[in-house]
């Protein structure tokens, strides 16, 4: 009896632990946090407390000899938060090449930098067409800075300029919520970076027209501009995201202070505009940033796909040229910790043989079955091209902030069989008339030739007789 109780207790523990480790992220809840010093953890207490509600955090130093991102060829962690930009020497198993391998295996990374960022981090982000500004440089703005800056103008205020040309925050709802976009301004003190032209990159936060990045010198920490800044204005990247082709996500934040409790709770007072806010928007912004990077939002997937002739339901592997077909695809979006219907309106269908022969926008259908439906159906009716061969029906949906969809199905399109061509078409009537007239003429000629006798031969026969 005692053994039975122990066994039941054992299964109960397993069951409860299973509920405990259930993650709300689509990729997992194991998070590795890298810190320059163990004492730095207290600086980001509120940030880490929020993460620990839904994730398992492991705090490590990048110089820890036991640190490894992989175990038995598999990832030990699902996400990495690198708050150790100053550490010059990482262990071999967490160097830039290891981080790239981690990303290629599907891991996500949040990377915070400072004006003292080491070459390890610089080399790592160069792989993604991002160049961090020189050491000891800061983003400076003499027109948008907080009153607590004490004349240095490096505590920059970033807010949404309500649709004007000087907006400095993305309006992409897949990355940031409306609460963050229209909420309190964001405080930023850190280093800027130059964003390349890679289509995989997306700018989330960037400098105003009045900002520039330059070295800060002297005890008073004032900038001395004696040459052209490396980057300036809207070209200054403050927060930039990259989504790799395997949908792994990396977010680069140019400020380590951005995640600190001090910045989370700090009031905002713009000296120039005299605008005051009781609290910055850093905390809400950071939460949205983590959700997106950890693939808790902006994740879409195909749940089903079907194609068939109009008026039929059977999906075929071979169609005939000029057939009218119906193509449908169902897409789900992960948001608010659950799968729900995707609300996109720009999903396109392509029929491809080397090049697209048909490209058409799919029509989203209303979700009528249930308000909690986990997918939305997109549909289109097309006529297949007058070209036979092997075609690919493809939905290639790649939009900033969303995971990529590249759904393909291969079908064969055949020509008409000999008994499938249309008969007696009007365009052929002239040819029918010519053929009929030739037949009538031939029969008339033959009849005349056979039954018409030569009169001279007939007279000679009479004389002979």
UniProtKB/TrEMBL annotation:
Keyword Transmembrane: yes
Alphabetical UniProt keywords: Endoplasmic reticulum, Membrane, Signal, Transmembrane, Transmembrane helix
Domain OST48 middle, first and last residues per copy: 307-452
Keyword Transmembrane helix set for record: yes
Functional pathway: Protein modification; protein glycosylation
Membrane topology of the entry: Single-pass type I membrane protein
Annotated ranges, domain OST48 N-terminal: 30-293
Gene Ontology cellular component list: oligosaccharyltransferase complex
InterPro entries linked to this entry: DDOST_48_kDa_subunit, OST48_MD, OST48_N
Record's protein name: Dolichyl-diphosphooligosaccharide--protein glycosyltransferase subunit WBP1
Taxon lineage: Eukaryota, Fungi, Fungi incertae sedis, Mucoromycota, Glomeromycotina
């Amino acid at each position: 009896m005692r053994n039975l109780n122990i066994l039941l207790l054992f299964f109960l523990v397993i069951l409860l632990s299973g509920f405990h480790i259930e993650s709300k992220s689509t990729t997992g809840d194991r998070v590795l946090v890298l810190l320059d010093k163990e004492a730095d953890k207290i600086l980001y207490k509120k940030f880490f407390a929020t993460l620990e509600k839904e994730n398992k955090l492991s705090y490590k130093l990048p110089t820890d000899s036991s640190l490894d991102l992989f175990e038995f060829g598999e990832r030990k962690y699902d996400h990495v938060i690198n708050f150790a930009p100053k550490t010059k020497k990482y262990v071999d198993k967490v160097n830039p090449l290891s981080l790239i391998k981690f990303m290629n295996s599907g891991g996500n990374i949040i990377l915070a930098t400072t004006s003292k960022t080491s070459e390890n981090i610089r080399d790592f982000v160069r792989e993604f067409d991002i160049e961090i500004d020189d050491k000891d440089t800061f983003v400076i703005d003499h027109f948008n800075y907080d009153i607590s800056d004490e004349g240095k103008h490096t505590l920059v205020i970033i807010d949404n300029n309500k649709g004007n040309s000087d907006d400095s925050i993305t309006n992409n709802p897949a990355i940031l919520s409306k609460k963050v976009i229209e909420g309190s301004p964001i405080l930023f003190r850190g280093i800027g970076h130059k964003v390349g032209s890679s289509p995989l990159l997306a700018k989330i936060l960037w400098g105003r027209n009045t900002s520039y990045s330059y070295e800060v010198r002297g005890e008073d920490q004032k900038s001395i501009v004696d040459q052209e800044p490396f980057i300036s204005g809207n070209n200054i990247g403050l927060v930039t995201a990259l989504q790799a082709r395997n949908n792994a996500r990396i977010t680069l934040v140019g400020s380590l202070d951005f995640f600190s409790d001090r910045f989370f709770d700090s009031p905002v007072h713009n000296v120039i505009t005299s605008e005051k806010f009781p609290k910055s928007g850093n905390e809400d912004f950071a939460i949205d940033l983590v959700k997106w990077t950890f693939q808790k939002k902006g994740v879409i997937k195909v749940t089903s796909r079907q194609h068939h002739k109009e008026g039929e339901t059977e999906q075929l592997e071979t169609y005939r040229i000029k057939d009218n077909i119906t193509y449908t695809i169902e897409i789900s979006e992960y948001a608010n910790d659950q799968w729900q219907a995707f609300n996109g309106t720009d999903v396109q269908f392509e029929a491809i043989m080397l090049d697209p022969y048909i490209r058409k926008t799919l029509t989203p259908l209303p979700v009528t079955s249930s308000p909690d439906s986990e997918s939305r159906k997109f549909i289109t009716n097309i006529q297949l091209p007058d070209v036979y061969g092997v075609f690919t029906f493809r939905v290639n949906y790649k939009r900033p902030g969303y995971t990529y969809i590249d759904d393909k199905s291969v079908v064969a399109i055949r020509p008409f069989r000999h008994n499938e061509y249309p008969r007696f078409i009007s365009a052929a009537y002239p040819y029918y008339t010519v053929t009929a007239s030739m037949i009538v003429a031939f029969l008339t000629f033959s009849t005349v030739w056979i039954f018409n006798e030569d009169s001279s031969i007939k007279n000679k026969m009479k004389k002979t007789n």
